[in-house]
Specification:
With 352 residues, the protein is α/β, with parallel strands linked by helices. 41% of the residues lie in helices and 16% in strands.
């Protein structure tokens, strides 16, 4: 089975081999040294400001989303959530769970986020903006320049879920004034699922230090204190951390720009091939991480099943009201352009 999903993705052979090796004990000076090097390289990947800190959580991306909300916000805040799909809606659910006052900007499927939609919320007492920068459920990539300007003009804490956009699209934590970046291991990092990450700047770290947290496992004060010595407060996913060490070495050697260019090339190649062959691609702004295919006849899930069962090609289905109309093709992981020729040819066999 070949994965064209958004996570997990096809992993490199050298990374897979690390996962098959015996695990070391991790409460050692040697492991701490690895962790501190990982923090340094991770900060370089996102271009974090010097005072930024990395938290490594053994949790899914949603765990890091929850940790960000419950550590950075309180009942005294008022959050603005971009809700353009299931992942944006998840931020709203987390705010509700922790009794954080919030409002949402709901975007119907296919509608692009614009300055006009943000304007009614300017200077209305909001203290933070929460966004899944690439709404993975639809494939829409929001305009980070637009969101950054809005946060700066309104003095908002800028919390960005970059789980499926990091290393797929240009991203610069310092340049965009992002206070907290969330990502995870199974997307463009192309590792096994199980780790999520928070990179927090000085402003966010001040909030963490003074904000009471209603969680034991997700209390970031504990993580930041432990990371000073290169450790985590609880047992981490040691094997994935070793894979991460290798992957960050490769990314550093290649350069972040080169990794993004690889994903851009795959996305453009596939989308151009779809256009030539009458396969409909969504017209709204898209991440290089995936291509959303549109099926006006409502047969998207049937196509997904045929691609999986007849050809061993695993695309990414949608759930809910988009199950019949949208099918997503991922561009992350260990894939080549010839893999996309195969996807297009098999889609042509299935589609009328």
């Amino acid at each position: 089975m070949k994965l064209f999903t958004v996570g997990p993705v096809e992993m490199q052979e050298d990374i897979l081999q690390i996962g098959a090796e015996p695990l070391p004990y991790f409460r050692t000076a040697e492991f701490s040294e690895k962790m501190l090097k990982i923090e340094q390289q991770f900060k370089q990947v996102v271009n974090a400001p010097p005072e930024a800190r990395l938290t490594i959580l053994t949790a899914s991306g949603t765990g890091a989303m929850e940790a960000a909300v419950c550590n950075l916000l309180s009942s005294q805040d008022k959050a603005l959530v971009i809700d353009g799909g299931s992942f944006g809606h998840r931020f709203a659910q987390i705010c509700q769970c922790f009794h954080i006052p919030f409002e949402t900007i709901k975007l119907p499927f296919g509608q692009t986020l614009t300055a006009q939609q943000l304007a009614p919320y300017a200077h209305k007492g909001f203290t933070a903006l929460l966004v899944n920068l690439h709404e993975t459920s639809t494939g829409q990539l929001y305009d980070i320049n637009l969101l950054s300007r809005f946060c700066q003009e309104n003095g908002l804490l800028f919390i960005v879920d970059a789980i499926s956009t990091l290393l797929a699209d240009p991203f610069d934590m310092a340049a965009y004034g992002v206070n907290a970046v969330i990502t995870a291991s199974q997307k463009a990092l192309a590792l096994a699922p199980g780790l999520s990450f928070l990179i927090t700047d000085g402003r966010a770290n001040e909030r963490i230090a003074h904000n009471p947290t209603l969680s034991v496992y997700f209390d970031l004060k504990d993580y930041l204190k432990n990371m000073e010595r290169g450790q985590t407060p609880f047992t981490p996913a040691v094997g994935i951390i070793l894979q991460l060490e290798k992957r960050l070495q490769e990314i550093t050697a290649a350069g972040v720009g080169q990794i993004i260019q690889q994903h851009r090339m795959r996305a453009e190649y596939f989308r151009n091939a779809c256009q030539r062959n009458g396969i409909t691609v969504a017209s709204y702004p898209k991440s290089n991480a995936l291509t959303p295919l549109i099926f006006p006849q409502g047969n998207a899930y049937d196509v997904f099943l045929q691609m999986k069962e007849k050809f061993g090609l695993m695309l990414t289905p949608n759930g809910g009201e988009l199950a019949g109309s949208v099918l997503r093709v991922g561009h992350l992981g260990n894939l080549s352009l010839t893999d996309y020729d195969l996807v297009v040819n098999r889609l042509k066999e299935i589609l009328p």
